Amino acid sequence: MTFDVNFWELLGGIGSLVGFLCGAVWGFGKLTISQFNKNLDQRFDSLNQMRTESNHALEDRFDSLRETFEEKHAENKKQWDGQFNRVADLARENEKELLRLKAELPYSYVMREDWIRFSGTIDSKLDSLWKMLDGVREKVSARD
Predict the structure, then answer these.
(1) 51-to-43, 56, 57, 58, 91 alpha-carbon distances in Å
(2) CA 131 to chain centre
(3) Per-residue 3-state assignment (H helix, E strand, C coil) for 16-31
């Protein structure tokens, strides 16, 4: 059995076979790439969904933390305001006491210069009284 094949027929057959194989490879490649893209799209969709859920969970957590912080801040603010008010009241009381002491100071204490002048006056009066008593003593002793 012999096959008699013309060159152009052989070339056409090989070309058809190569075309068929190229088409098969191209089709298989296209199928593989489309499946790969489909899998990537599914992964991206699931990752996006997980990210969205995670964002919602974090937002809920941050909201609860913010509420807790605001409650604690309000409590602490009330506490600190009370302490600041007590400190302010103590400062006002101290200021009143200081002003009272300043007002009483001239009645309770004598300045050094005033005391020196006052004691000088008393000393001179005592000296004059001593001289007078000394004069009286001399007169009494002269009579005897």
Answers:
(1) 12, 9, 10, 10, 56
(2) 82
(3) HHHHHHHHHHHHHHHH
**pLDDT tens profile 76-110:** 888 888 889 999 999 999 999 999 988 888 777 77
**In whole angstroms, what is the distance from residue 121 CA to residue 114 CA?**
11
DSSP 111: -
- State how far the Cα of 32 lies from the Cα of 29, in Å rounded to an integer: 5
Cut 0.70: pTM above it: no
Length of the chain: 144
Per-residue pLDDT reduced to its tens digit, 53-84: 999 999 999 999 999 998 888 888 888 888 89
Helices and strands in the chain: count of H runs, count of E runs: 2, 0
Residue 110 CA to its chain's centroid (Å): 53
The tokens of 21 are what? 């194989």
Non-local (6+) Cβ contacts of 85 within 8 A are none
